[in-house]
Design a protein that fits this description.
Distance between the termini: 86 Å
Shape: globular
Strand order of the largest sheet: 12-15-16-10-17-18
Radius of gyration: 27 Å
Largest sheet: 6 strands, mixed
């Protein structure tokens, strides 16, 4: 019997390709066509009717896990108080364990989370604090814990809770090694080790080890200079008034937002603040960015933003959303290719005497197409070894020794350097090397301006941190001419940055606003918040207790609002800056 031919529909084809692909990049691409929706049978409970019919304290297991952790604790206490003596005998050990574990999560500032929250929706900081709570619950002693920037994504209020938790773990007889840039965490430490003095090739030395006062007195330490106040990020003497135009959102109700109405001033440096889980990302990334994308692309999303209306979009002509997503997922992606400067460099090499003699065009110097690249590694410089249930491992190509190109291509030199030598240059070296090539220099200089002078032009994207990737994207956008109607959106750009890097980043962002564009930043760092022209503060707390606009206005106005946790911390830092004379005079 002959099999009938049939046409495969797009849905079936995407599902098949998604199941068959071994590429994480393609899997992510196919996922862009998919959406998670609530099951119409169990309505998200994941259990059948028989399991859900069992109730404790008038709630079934799904309803209990849907409570925020602070409300969950109250429910556990209510259940405990309603038990008979016999029931207490049966349940006390279980209730004690549940109460302890939930309390540890609340103590590290996660009271707004629900137990049913999907792990994939947790931020890195939230996931790290859950692991911390697990370790506290175990009450082990004599353990060495290593934490990498646990303060990422934390409001100062949550950070205080984190520091208290770390001290409790130390007091149990444990040792904690914390990699951190946060000033409060450094001041709470018993012993400090400072590595530097600079980044990349300029670092790698032990600059100081000892207590806080000794670090402040160490002139060779950048960290010590900021702790002592010898170097500082200043408070502006005056706040900009913008161009008098606004984007207005009416009735935003995404996630925990409670029909929020907000006016975002244009032509200003605007900060969106609030405690962890207060709704900042819901308001900006899930609502504003989606709405602007829909308007500027003139197409409607299948899942439009959850708002009643939005106005003022005619006041912007371009949205630049700079996330911390990688600039590429393979070693072929690097700062040179992402910023576009590699096209100009390849064209330059095509003009060399050897290239002309051999008839090479600029395509010869691309490692993405056949011809000049090493075919064994296909221009990656490394070969990928799949590791089944572990992340793939990359090893240096044994044919080209990581140089990406074949011997013939590497015989072409510009000023004594091959194309590989150029890719292997640090940004700061490349600025000097291409000093007489204005078109190339302008693009490379933007990478220097955002503090990336220490990375290499051809550094694989897989080796860049989220903060570095975000700054590469920012540098790429800085190459374009200002329109005065562009909106830049950044989500926690200070992640992983030292105070010196934050200072450099702020200079770039302020320059963008000085050109007439608008910069909108979601941020917890008080050093960034104090430089804002306007603040939109959400809260008062996280989860169901958040999702409201608590305060708006200049940093000084928000600092005077007693309902704002951000304002309470901001008031102290503004007063301290003015007392120490750390105010930037108007130029």
């Amino acid at each position: 019997m002959r099999r009938k031919n049939f046409i495969q529909g797009p849905k079936t084809k995407i599902e098949r390709l998604y199941a068959e692909t071994s590429s994480s990049f393609m899997r992510q691409y196919y996922e862009s066509f998919m959406r998670d929706t609530v099951c119409v049978t169990c309505h998200g409970a994941r259990l059948n009717e028989a399991a859900l019919s069992v109730k404790v304290g008038e709630l079934n297991i799904f309803e209990a896990t849907e409570l925020s952790l602070d409300r969950f604790l109250l429910w556990v206490n209510d259940v405990s108080s309603s038990l008979t003596e016999t029931e207490h005998t049966i349940a006390d050990m279980v209730l004690k364990e549940i109460r302890n574990r939930a309390s540890f999560l609340v103590d590290v500032g996660l009271d707004y989370l629900t137990l049913s929250r999907y792990a994939m929706t947790l931020s890195g900081g939230e996931a790290q604090r859950i692991r911390l709570a697990t370790q506290i619950g175990s009450k082990l002693s004599g353990v060495l814990y290593v934490l990498d920037e646990p303060s990422i994504g934390l409001h100062q209020r949550d950070n205080d809770k984190l520091i208290k938790t770390l001290k409790e773990m130390r007091d149990l007889g444990n040792t904690l090694i914390v990699v951190e840039h946060d000033e409060d965490t450094m001041r709470a430490a018993d012993y400090l080790v400072d590595i530097g003095p600079g980044a990349g090739i300029h670092g790698g030395n032990l600059v100081y080890q000892g207590d806080e006062k000794g670090l402040e007195a160490c002139s060779a330490s950048l960290t010590g200079q900021f702790l002592s106040g010898k170097r500082f990020i200043p408070v502006p003497a005056h706040r900009r008034k913008g161009n008098g135009k606004f984007i207005e959102i009416h009735g935003a109700y995404e996630h925990n937002l409670k029909n929020v109405d907000v006016k975002i001033p244009l032509g200003e440096f605007v900060l969106v603040t609030g405690v962890s889980g207060s709704g900042k990302s819901s308001l900006i990334n899930e609502t504003l960015v989606k709405a602007i994308d829909d308007a500027l692309s003139r197409k409607k999303d299948i899942y439009p933003p959850k708002i009643k209306s939005i106005s003022g979009l005619e006041n912007i002509d371009k949205l630049i959303n700079i996330t911390q997503e990688p600039i590429g997922r393979t070693p072929r992606s690097n700062p040179a290719t992402y910023t576009g400067v590699f096209d100009d460099i390849r064209a330059l090499f095509a003009e060399t005497d050897e290239a002309r003699a051999q008839g090479y065009d600029k395509g010869r110097f691309s490692f993405n197409v056949k011809g000049g690249r090493c075919e064994k590694c296909q221009g990656a410089g490394v070969t990928r070894i799949p590791m089944s249930f572990l992340p793939d491992v990359y090893v240096k190509c044994d044919e080209c020794q990581g140089k990406r190109y074949n011997e013939e291509t590497l015989r072409c030199f510009y000023k004594g350097k091959s194309i590989y030598d150029v890719l292997d240059m640090r940004i700061e070296e490349a600025v000097e090397f291409f000093a007489n090539r204005p078109q190339i220099l302008r693009k490379i200089k933007t990478l220097m301006d955002v503090g990336l002078g220490y990375i290499k032009l051809g550094q694989p994207a897989t080796e860049l941190s989220g903060g570095e990737a975000q700054r590469v994207k920012l540098a790429t956008e800085l190459q374009r001419r200002s329109t005065g109607k562009t909106l830049y959106v950044l989500d926690e750009p200070t992640t992983g940055l030292h105070s010196a890097d934050v200072d450099m980043l702020l200079r770039v962002l302020q320059k963008i606003v000085n050109n007439g564009d608008t910069v909108l930043v979601i941020e917890h760092s008080l050093d960034v918040i104090k430089q804002a022209d306007a603040i939109i503060d959400l809260g008062p707390l996280g989860g169901d207790k958040g999702g409201q606009i608590i305060a708006t206005g200049t940093p000084e106005e928000v600092a005077e609002n007693p309902n704002s946790f951000t304002g309470q911390y901001l008031k102290r830092i503004l007063a301290s800056a003015r007392e120490k004379g750390q105010v930037l005079d108007e130029e």
